[in-house]
Amino acid sequence: MSAVEPSPSPSSSDLGEDSYLSSKSLPELLTMMPEKLGFEVHNADPKRVSIYTLRLLYFFAAEKGKYYDDIFPWTSDYIGGEFPQFIDDVWSSSYCFFDDDDENSQGYSHKGRICAREIPPGEPVYNCYDCGVDPTCCMCAHCFNEREHSDHNVSRHISQGNAICDCGDASSWKKTLDCLANKGDQSSDSSELPQELKKSITNTIESALDFFLDVQSTNVQVLRSTSDNRTDQELVTADEEVDDLTFLDGPKYGIETDCLCSWYLIAWNDEFHDWNTAVKTISLARHGFDEDSGQMSVNLASIIDSKGYTSILQASKVEDLIGAFSQFRNTGMTATVLSAKAAVRLEAADAAIKFISKIVHCTNSKVAEFSMKILSELLLKEYPSFFYIDKSKLSVDDENSLLCSDGIPLIDRGKVDIPPLNTVSDLLLEGSRSFPPVTPTKVGTKKDFSRLQLLFFLERRFPKCTRKILKALVVPVITSTAEFRTQFGLQITEILPTLEHINQYYDREWHLSLLESFRLQIYHDPCIGTVLLEKGTFKNILESALGCFVKYGAISHGYLIYGIYGSGYYSWERRRNNTAESQIYRSAATIISFLKAASLKILEPDYFGYIILLVSIFDNSYEIVRKVGEHVEREDLKYKRFFTLAVVAYDIAKFIGKLVSTIKGKNELVENAIRFVSIYLNARYKHIFVTKVSSDPVSLLHPLQSLLAQLCMNYSFFNISLLAPTSGDQTNISSGSKDTLSALSHASSISLVESNVLCSQIKTGFWVRNGNSVISQYEISHTFYDECGSLYLEQLAIIGKVIEMEDILKAWEFSDCILSTSPIPFNETIYEDRASAMLLEMITKLYHLFTYRLSFDSSMTRDRLSYLQTRAELAYTLCHQEKGYSDLKEQFEGVPFFDEVFEEIAQFIPPRSLRDYGHYALKNNLYSKLDPFDFLNKYVSSDDVQDSILEKLADIKNKKKEDIVLKPVLYDLNSSDLKKMEPLADTFKSNLFAKFLYKVLRFSIDSDQDDHLMATLHLLHAILEDDSLRYLDGEQHISSFVDIPICNILLGIVERKSSSAIIAKKAASILDIILLKDDAVLQSLVDCFGEEHIKNFRKSKHGKGLETRNERAHRLAHKRQRRILERIRGQQKKFMSRNKDFFKDADLETSFTGKDKEQDKHTEENNARVCILCRKPENDSEIFGIPTLISKSSVFWNFPNIFKPGSYPPSFIPGADMSVDWNVHSEKGLSYFDHGERTDSNVIPLFPRPRVDGSSKFDPQKDRHKRDETLNTTEPPIKQPFCFSKDVITGCPHGMHLSCFLDMLKKKGYKVTRFLCPLCQKYCNSFIPSLNDPRTKLDPMGKPVVLDAMDMDNEVGNENSSMIGEKVLDQKLRDLLKDYDEKKTHIKEELASLDKQNELLRDVRAEFVECVDPEISSALLIGSTLQMYEIANRYKETEKRVSNLTRSGTTFTSVPKCHIEDISPTLLSDISLLVLRSLIQYRALMHFVSDAEMNDHEFQTSEKEMAHHRYLGFLDSVLVRFFSGKESFDTIIRSVLARFITRITLCAMSKLSEDVSTNLFSSFCYEIKTKTHKEDECFDIFCNGLSARLGIDTPKSVKNSLYSIVCTWFARYKSQIALLAECFNFSSTEHLIGNVDELFESTNLNNTIEHSSMIAEINSLLSLSKQNYVILDYPAPVLLQPMAPKISDYLDGSFGNISSRLVSDTKYVICMLCGQAVTRMGEHTPKCQFGPGTHCLFFSPYHNRLDLFLKPQSFLARHDLPGEVVGHLSSPYLNKYGEAAGGLLGGGEAGTLHLDRFWYLNQCWLNQSLIASEFASLADSQFGGLRLNVPFTLDDDAQEFFTLNLQNAPNVENDLALMNAALRLRAFPFPERDTRGDIEEDDDENDGDQNMTDDDEFEDDDNPLW
Fold this sequence. Notes:
Layout: H1 12-15, H2 18-22, H3 26-31, H4 33-36, H5 48-61, H6 68-71, H7 87-90, E1 118-119, E2 124-128, E3 154-158, E4 163-164, H8 180-183, H9 195-217, H10 232-243, E5 263-268, H11 275-286, H12 293-307, E6 309-315, H13 322-331, E7 335-339, H14 340-360, H15 365-380, E8 408-412, H16 424-428, E9 441-446, H17 451-457, H18 464-478, H19 482-494, H20 496-505, H21 514-523, H22 528-535, H23 538-547, E10 554-556, E11 559-561, H24 572-593, H25 605-616, H26 639-661, H27 668-684, H28 703-714, H29 746-763, H30 773-784, H31 787-799, H32 805-811, H33 815-818, H34 835-851, H35 862-880, H36 885-891, H37 898-905, E12 906-909, E13 919-922, H38 942-957, H39 975-980, H40 982-988, H41 991-1006, H42 1013-1030, H43 1039-1043, H44 1046-1055, H45 1061-1077, H46 1080-1089, H47 1091-1099, H48 1109-1138, H49 1157-1160, E14 1184-1200, E15 1216-1217, E16 1231-1232, E17 1243-1245, E18 1283-1291, E19 1296-1297, H50 1298-1308, E20 1315-1316, E21 1323-1324, E22 1326-1329, H51 1349-1353, H52 1359-1368, H53 1371-1378, H54 1386-1397, H55 1399-1402, H56 1414-1432, H57 1435-1447, E23 1454-1456, ...
Antiparallel strand pairs: 1-4, 2-3, 5-6, 5-7, 8-9, 10-11, 12-13, 14-18, 14-19, 14-22, 14-24, 15-16, 17-23, 20-21, 25-26, 25-27, 27-28, 28-29, 30-31
Helix pairs in contact: 5-9, 5-14, 9-14, 9-15, 11-12, 11-13, 14-18, 18-21, 19-22, 20-23, 20-24, 21-24, 23-24, 23-25, 24-26, 25-26, 26-28, 26-30, 27-28, 28-31, 29-31, 29-34, 34-42, 35-37, 41-42, 41-44, 42-45, 44-45, 46-47, 52-58, 56-58, 56-60, 56-63, 56-68, 57-68, 59-60, 60-61, 61-62, 61-63, 61-65, ...
């Protein structure tokens, strides 16, 4: 509905009495439309006519307004307000309908029917391979339900306009689809439509459809030819005369009124003219009528482009339009002159079609379904009456486009007289009608035609807008049921030749033709083609397909072939013709491919004759001639049409072969068809002769031979006798007078050989001057044409002696080298230096001729053949290179049996890293079955296959490559089938071929051109192997190879120095085989080389196997005898060993396998490292160091403020309900429980982790400046943190002299805080001295200096720092540092300078405080890094429990607790130890510097204050106290441990006293063994003391809980102490720390450091104010956010903390640290409760991708770098093939969680290797921009390490070499940028002289140049 239209409308007075209008029928009222609208067409109001017509039709459809609520259910509230209720209201301007495409449409639906929607270009098309019956079944965007197919194998592509939705078609899907379009259908299914409404809808649709057809039947002016010779005045007058004949008078419409005072010039759209031409023409036509013609012309052109036509001018006289008409005629645009009556009527007819479209798509599905049914029935019914114009009154471009008085004209298009088979030779005689007429003729009329047929026939007259509507309306509606679809196909094919003729040559808008949609629906239907064949209309399809080539075809020797492009090739006519040719021809092939197995009628002469002509039209077409002299100036692109359409011809041949393969038993039709094709083929080649491929015209196109080959290969009862000449056949012409056993002509057979020669010449560059077009022709023919069929016919020709080896040599142009009386060398032929390459091609083709035998297997089925072909192609692909499944699927798309073959021959190679996904390789047992020169290997070079096979077999057999001999693989045939090929085998063993092989081998020895040598040897090997298959050893069948001394040449190849070891071994093996077959070979060798030479050769490596048959039998007998003796000797040894006492005096045979003792002694080697810059070793006079990276880690989780009751967040309670079956992937997701809930104390949650809210970790106002303040331990942050982010240190082992390092920084413009390691390109922000470690053990034990904790805290002195220096620094260096001689102070100066530049190291701090002492920085870095590694190791506990349960198939909601003894020890990697010990050395060095130049008191004061900081971790506290005091590690550890245990116990006791049932701690506590009485007593005393200080009672049950809690925390601290001991190289840890009970015992004793520490901690805690709080370490495994078992679980928001609003947002991501769903990573990162604030890890379900968000300025000393960086990582969600799943975006292959990858991701995040790897390229030349590498792409030496078997995997940095390989990264693709010249110079200087070890090796291409 719309507002009142601005255009004038008829008044009520003009309409007359209501009774007058009420008496009129709907057809009469439609005819009156021009009169009622005043005979006016308004360009300013183009929808005026349409609106009134729609109003009228809806009024009648609703039974004169009675049923508006059924037709418009969504506007039922407004009935009576906008809709006309009476006939007068129809013409009133106050009642209007929207003329909108979306009117009545509140959402697309096709409920109860097939969608059949033609998917327009640009829209997505979805194919679900799991649900579809075949890969062609597709859905449109309206129907595709993303949720239903989220885990299915779905592909999506963009429509090219050739796809139709199959949703709703039960035959296309394996199950009923949950259609998304139908889910939105809100109509009720409870009630049926009233019968009265059904009748009114039926009548209205019928009237609208008939009105449209009748109006268009009279619309004939538009058919006028643009080349009409009459004058403009004559043409306009003719239009006027025709207009007088177009009245719709009669009983249906009554008397039509006309207005002769108004005429319109109508311009029509076409695809021949561009926009500018249209605007200019309109402007010239309107000149003088409108001053503002420019803008109006543009507007009118726009209307024409969208609508298809419009009125340009209006005049009262026809003569006034002649001048304007001439302007259109001058430019060739179509224009007609119509009366006002005709013009208004045309628009009303278009509106009638629009109405039908709208009611068919009504939102009331019942109205829509009923309307569709009625429309289908009306279209298929016979049209009772029609209007036509006598063609004698007209002058049109095509008379066949006009209706006749008795119906639709039928034409002869491509019709050919096909005689019976017994007179088939008549068809082949010159002068007979073997090709159709160029000009089609009328052969009859279709009298009883239907509305559908009339609609298709009149289509070219319709305007553009109407054609678009019909294209989307008619075909989907008429194909909504199988019955309608069949009738649709039958009716259109009856008149198909006429329709396609009109569309191909006369349609102005051919791309809008309904025929295209018809072909898509009917030709792709698997059943209709067979029905059409049985009904006889299938011939029209074939006839029309042949006729589409007639007009532009050519005649060659009396036969039709595809024509060359003549003048006007680039015109619009040719473009239209090309489109029609392609569509018609391809569609014919498509419908042939869908014929059912029993459709043998296609082989009858009436049909098969058309098949032959359709195929042969491209046979031997597009001949090319080799260009000599200069290169072609322009590429000849005309080949594209020939070669692309020829693919269809080959496809037709294959489809016919497929039909034949289904025939069981002998069949006369098939045998007659074989004779038919062979005779026709001979006749066509009777006049075709090629002397030389290099100079004569030659073609690559031979689809007719392919048709014959397909018939022969697929007919199970084929015998070569079927090709024998018939008595009446005079067409079998062969060269010379040689007898033949076959009807194959010499010319047709040798043409296939010539095509092989042509391909080889193109491949070797012999046709290079012809340009790239010939290369494309070769590629197309090699990829798409029937090479197998051509090869088969060549084999048959040789077997039938149609062609001989002599003919083959002549075709390859090598006859002068073999057949001539004065033979020439191969390199003096026309090929010259390409002779060896051509010989390689020729030998390869001959090898294929000899070895390919699948076509001769009488038991072979077509499916089996396809399976073997796919198997071979896939095997050779995998043999050459490992590939992912998706890559293989894309490469082999549409290849039959791919999945079955894949499962059989492919084996999965697990991924080597998180970046890597699994690949597939060929199974090991199949390599021995591959042949490098196999005919079925099409896509991998033989050299690559040979190398891959040799390498793999050598690895499997544990041999060298040169010791492996590849044997030819010959398909095993039964004796009878093998007998059929015997003539072929004899040809290859003839004297002529032996002579050829001899000369080819001799050529390889005499010249340096031996590219062909391996292929030649392999062919010879195959001939010998075949001979062994056919005959017994005693029989002689290779005399030609003995008579012609090939064996002598083989020996020469073996002994030739330039022969590779592989070729020499091959030649020697062949020589052995020949000798075994004929003893005379040995005598021949002696005669040629001499007896002494042969004796010496037989002693050599390759001659050991040279033996005669008798010698071999003798050797084998001795070998068997030795085996028997060895078996007896072994039994004797066993017997003697069991009876040693009896044989103790015997001289037993022993073997010496040991080594000299001196060799077993370990010798000290010089382990001095080498500077990667100057290549000089480290020394005692220079500082040597390594690059390091200081970054933030957020793995330090905490329990905040549990001591102060009620002040911690109630949601911060660990534990989760993980009732997920990880084996069946149920959709139940994660949910958190509150503090009031209880858990079973005997189990531990699967993923215990705290819940957090959305609040910020730091208060934005209070904490922003906290980083820049001095030490403050009394003012903690406003909000308690759930985790600390601490600085940790990682690095690489690539050492440098400090002086070299500083020079490098200066040269490249780097800084110490921002640089790249010169070798591994790691990003680093600090440099740590790493000196020669004396490896002195550090004794951690020592007598306490004081026993009071307060006294220890107030100690003055730094003896420990001095002591550490003595342990970790070499004596020479210490002496050098103590020497105050000015000449030797440069080291101290360098250290002081380095200290100032190591800004990030100086800036290391504890959480919420700033550290001013770089020595404290070292202590904090070491402590935090060690704690990080301990925390990172905890995930293994959870991983091990989960992995064990999932592998056992257990379904669980929680897992049993682990015993505390099960905690796995943490080990430091070599790199970690190197970095941490280097940091200790740096701490010691700075101590020496500070003694001389800095204020010790200031630093010591700072350290003392830091030691009291309550937020330090356990190791932080230990190391700060150690470096600032005198006490031993043992004393400090006991003191700090007592403090921490006291703090934990006191806090837990306080909490448990309030709520005994709390589960705050139970989730993290391990199972503890039962305490002894003494242990229980010690803990009781400890607890009683704390209880007394708190003033509370502690019952026994609480004490038991407390003990479990304390033991859990103690175990963590003990693991951290073990790492500390490894880092500081403790001499012993035996007495360093015992168990927790010993600690309690010591704490209970007075005068112990433990007791005083406990008292000090109690006093400190009890003195806290209300503003302070206590934070405890988090003792449980720290993990990333749990991930859903299936990625589709994220769709409904059931997994994780995801709102429904975010689920629908494809941009949302999930924070992997806190679990929140966000849309802006940059905003969330600094606020994340579990993140460091500098970086964060996110998961995107819709893209199945992990995103690492970085704020790069956070990792630089000065925050001067803007911007953010997002690195994309691979996801742990994989499909069933081990590859990345597709994600939710676009649907399909959403994937399931790969647990190993999930655990590995946790590992990499926790130990900071992920962050360290991501920062590897965080830099650029100016440090003003950023570049990011994606991590985890590893070299081959890390393959074994990263197998993702993480249960037993070591730490990521477990091994120095492997971790160094892991840090060798690959560049992430970023936009190219300029690099600085000095960097390039530096790289040039280093080229070639880097002294790299195996661990440091890298490729330049893998490391970007900065």
